[in-house]
Amino acid sequence: MKKQKTAVRITVGVSVPAALFLCVFLFLKFKSPPCFFYGATGLYCIGCGAGRALDSLFHLKILDALQYNLLFTLSLPYAALLLIKWYFSIILGKEIMKPIKISDKGAIIYAVILGAFFILRNIPYPPFNYLSPDVFL
User: Fold this and answer.
1) Residue 97 and residue 87: Cα distance in Å, rounded?
2) d(CA 77, CA 99)
3) What share of the chain is helix, strand, coil (3-state, %, to 5)?
4) How high is the mean pLDDT of the chain?
5) Radius of gyration for the alpha carbons in the chain, expressed in angstroms and rounded
6) Is 85:100 a contact under the CB 8 Å cutoff?
7) Rounded (10°) angle between helices 50-58 and 70-92
8) Contact 11, 91 (CB under 8 A)
9) At what angle are helices 2-30 and 70-92 packed, to 10 degrees?
10) What is the pLDDT of residues 40-67, one digit of tens each?
């Protein structure tokens, strides 16, 4: 059983950085695909502009990233922290950071924020149209 856990830790320790490197390489080379939801409905989903925001972050253009997708850009540090915590807990076999707890109330609040973001960014009048990714192109 110990050898199996070690094999999993080594596999995750090597494959996650390799996959991340490959994803970044492919993203920078080919850019992100168009949004299928926008193509089908003409509405901006909560992820529209996230690819351009990520590309802007790779080039250290933080204000551009915020303009393309405000919610994605603001949520990215928290998501990165969760992924880093998960990665190190697997490869080291123990928790090295304090547990990050998300309460039911916090999850509901974030779901409401996502819904409000979806609705507000599709209102074509100021100030709501500033939430759409195409205003600043």
Assistant:
1) 11
2) 16
3) 70, 0, 30
4) 86
5) 18
6) yes
7) 70
8) no
9) 150
10) 999 999 999 988 898 899 889 999 999 9
| Mean pLDDT value across residues 57-78 | 93
Which residues, including other chains, have CB under 8 Å from residue 133's CB and lie 6 or more apart? Answer: 44, 48, 49, 52, 53, 67, 68, 69
pLDDT at 1 over 70: no
Cis peptide before 133 (omega within 30 of 0): no
Let me know the angle formed at the C-alpha of 134 by 71 and 54, rounded to the nearest 5 degrees.
Answer: 45
DSSP letter (8 states) at residue 131 = G
For the entire predicted model, the pTM comes to 0.78
Q: Which residues of 92-119 are buried (b: 16+ CB within 10 A; e: fewer)?
A: eeeeeeeeeeeeeeeeeeeeeeeeebbe
